[in-house]
Amino acid sequence: MTTSTLQNLPPHDDEATRAADQALRDHAGQAGEWHLADLFADDPNRFDTLSLHAGGVLADFSKQRLTAETLEKLRALAGARGLDAWIRCLFEGGEVNWTEGRAAMHWRLRQPARDDGEQDPVQAQLLRMERIVKRILSGQWRGCEGDAITDVVNVGVGGSDLGPLMASVALHENQPPEGRRPRVHFVSSMDGSQIAPLLDELNPATTLIVVSSKSFTTVDTLSNAATARYWLEKAFPDRNGAVLRCHFVGISAKPERMSEWGIHGDNQLLFWDWVGGRYSLWSAIGLPIALTIGMDGFRELLAGANEMDRHFQDAPWERNLPVLLGLVDVWNLNFLNITARAVLPYDGRLKHWPSYVEQLEMESNGKSVDRDGQLVDYHTCPVIWGEVGPNAQHAFYQLLHQGTRPVACEFIAAARHGRRQGSSAELQPLEEQHILTLANCLAQSRLLALGDRALAEDDDTPTYKRYRGNQPSTTLLLDELTPRHLGALVALYEHKVFVQAVLWGINPFDQWGVEMGKKIATDMIQVLGNGDGGDGLDASTRALARYVRERQA
Ligand code: F6P
Question: What does it do (predicted)?
Fold first, then answer.
């Protein structure tokens, strides 16, 4: 690894940036008049020029309000912002996270093993993780009463929850070839509403708790972990250390804090400061994924992401999927002034994809201060929300079709379902349901793009039945929802977030905006308890705290 630093980066070429920006603004002036129906009528080859396949993912940008000329101008802006040097800096381990003075090397976690095997700390942790996975799947890992593990509870929040949750659910149909997998549960919410009913269902003798926290200080996670520990120690009052040794695994970048909490040294899996929380599913934080699909499956996930890493570094920008996905978002937000984006998976297996993407993008790029400490005078991350597409059709599509504001939509689906053999998975009607879902996906993106002109409605149709169309969208089709292709998809999003951050001049790897809330919540506990510290509060918070206290009494 070289010691590339930000000083090695060429400064932004401000003049070139201004020129590229102005060219895009002028171009957007014309684009404001475009309707997607006309763009398709004018250029029958639109799909061929504006779609791309890499890493098992087909991306169709042809339903975006842009042309090949737009992309050329966006690439000029990326060039002026020094994107190529930034990409090199990322992969050389430079301090791209400059406010915390460190690199962002999640890509390191998915590099293939080098010959030195165990010497490499990344591979060493992967092997430790593999040993734990094998012991659980084979039934060798025993609870303190000698029972095999049937249930694993991942206790974590944010990046220590959303990535493993999203991928475990998405890939659940991929049974590990070896052993018998446990049921894997996820608990994140600090209010106990998830863990309480779960513990009612579980047998403590056969339950393993995985405490996942990079910092091992997050109160949400530690409060749920303490409840789980209380539950287990109450179930086995005479077994002291055996409860901790047999029923708890810890995953963190802070081994000393895990030890202090009571996690046995043999049950600690480590990752590093240079892996951001929301970029950590590739590390031991991915343990629930490996328990769901097996270690070979987990390695496939890593391989798919590594393929996307190489594509991102090597492909020319005209054919570079993360670069294009990032540029299209910048076009929509900064030049067409489309400030919202809907993430719409047409596959229930991807039901946690929207929440995962919400954290990845909004925690990374919800920033307004640039590298020089100056406030930026343009929008950065759009507001992102989403839902499984077919359900969203019956919830908020009305707004997409006939509301007043433009929303950029992102459709994601698997071209082939690829059902595994056995049980209900082979039922013929399920194949038909997959086609039905894809039909809805394609129909919706078409109607959103073309509006009435998709249907050749006559002019007498009342206005309340009309569809304006011109709502832009990208469609991403995975060849199949395999571990490999999901790995590529996640890496694609990670890199496109980086591309956008470079264009916006912000740091996508810190999250200072969530720190203060954590601190003042701690102070508030006392205010709610006995009122101490309430005097300095604003009138609203003081009155609400008093209202709560009165009803607790
Ligand atoms: O929400 C802030 C945050 O720091 C996220 O970035 C992170 O993924 C989450 O909290 C959990 O943090 P930890 O893994 O340290 O418990």
Answer: Catalyzes the reversible isomerization of glucose-6-phosphate to fructose-6-phosphate.
